[in-house]
Design a protein that fits this description.
With about 350 residues, the protein is α/β, with parallel strands linked by helices. The protein folds into 2 domains: about 140 residues, NAD(P)-binding Rossmann-like Domain (Rossmann fold, 3-Layer(aba) Sandwich), CATH 3.40.50; about 160 residues, 2-Layer Sandwich (Dihydrodipicolinate Reductase, domain 2). It contains 13 helices and 16 strands. It has an 8-stranded mixed sheet with strand order 10-11-12-7-13-14-15-16. A hairpin with a 4-residue loop joins β8 and β9. The longest helix is centred in the C-terminal third of the chain and has 15 residues. The relative contact order is 0.17.
């Protein structure tokens, strides 16, 4: 589906001057010659002024409605906390702006469905920031595996040592944070929704649920496995893809060092049951370096943020629906809910 196109430069307003704006989105947008940052809004005025000074943004606001009333805007980046996102995104769409929101795509599937209907009614793009899809090493791995085999099984994990109550305690981390892993698992599977799901949920040294291990069958018969635990040794974010004769292992960071790399194994020849009995199998391997593929060692580039923002801007200019539109992203929050409702 296409919506009305916009001529470059795209006039962009930013709502939210917190860490996600400061560390990845503004550095990304500032590198695009066909983007004009016209205004930034934050309830904390000094935060907006600080980023405006750094990125030469001419106007700052503390009230969204004032910014919308006084500025000429083509697209809005809504970078606010999850509990506030629905109302901010709704206001942006109602004013006729193409809109980018950070994940999750609503704190419930009901919110995501409502946003999808509003985007259609207003004929405006609403893209959701699932940046893992746009990490260069992820996209290259997905391509290489698909060239060898149909995917049969995918797996995603997100381990951390932290608090599982997100957004000042208002939201479960499986909904707000682990959804990154759920969405990428779904993306790698090529499926849309789950036919069946089951999950084991635990609490470790926590007053709230903080560990989730689930399995599902997607509508294309690919098996999906999700693992998350927020009381472990540190941050581990890894994914697997498997098909007949091919396996891929994607590492999006272990511990304090954030890196992106992948290894793809391809089996050649006969079946081998035992390394000890018959020796190593006839396998080839390819190693992919994420920074090399991104052409940069800057975090906002090799971790996909630049490329997702670039994709959104390109869609605003062309009128084409974004790959990670609300119409697709709503299936990831629906899958999160399916897992949580299938506890065993």
């Amino acid at each position: 589906m296409q919506y009305p196109a916009v001529s470059a430069p795209v006039r962009v307003a930013v709502i939210g001057a917190g860490g996600i704006a400061r560390s990845v989105h503004l550095p990304s947008l500032a590198e695009m010659p066909d983007v004009k940052l016209v205004a930034i809004c934050d309830l904390i005025e000094q935060r907006a002024k600080d980023l405006a000074a750094k990125y030469a943004i001419p106007k700052t606001y503390t009230l969204i409605r004032d910014m919308f009333a006084q500025e000429t805007i083509d697209a809005v980046f809504c970078l606010v906390e999850p509990a506030s996102m629905f109302h901010v995104a709704t206001l942006s769409l109602e004013h006729g702006y193409h809109t980018f929101i950070e994940k999750p795509p609503g704190i419930t599937a009901y919110q995501a469905e409502s946003l999808a209907r509003l985007a259609d009614a207003k004929q405006r793009h609403l893209m959701v920031g699932f940046n893992r899809r746009f990490i260069p090493v992820v996209r290259k791995t997905r391509q290489l595996v698909a060239e060898q085999s149909k995917v049969t099984q995918v797996e995603g994990c997100f381990f951390k040592y932290g608090d599982a109550a997100f957004d000042k305690g208002s939201l479960c981390s499986f909904v707000s944070d682990t959804i990154h892993a759920v969405d990428l698992m779904r993306y790698l599977s090529g499926g849309t929704s789950a036919k069946k799901a089951a999950m084991v949920i635990n609490r470790y040294d926590s007053p709230v649920d903080n560990a989730w291990n689930g399995v599902c069958i997607f509508d294309n018969d690919v098996t999906g496995i999700i693992k998350a635990n927020y009381r472990v040794g540190g941050r581990v974010h890894q994914f697997q893809m498997h098909g007949i004769g091919v396996s891929a292992f994607i590492d999006l960071g272990m511990g304090a060092e954030v890196s992106t790399q992948a290894k793809i194994l391809s089996h050649q020849g006969g079946i081998s049951y035992s390394l000890a009995a018959t020796g190593k199998a006839n396998e080839t391997s390819v190693v992919l370096d994420g920074k090399e593929l991104a052409g940069s060692d800057k975090f906002h580039r090799f971790y996909g943020y630049y490329f997702e923002d670039r994709h959104f801007i390109d869609c605003v200019i062309s009128g084409d629906r974004p790959e990670c539109s609300i119409h697709d992203a709503k299936h990831s929050i629906a899958l999160v809910e399916a897992f949580l409702h299938s506890a065993i």
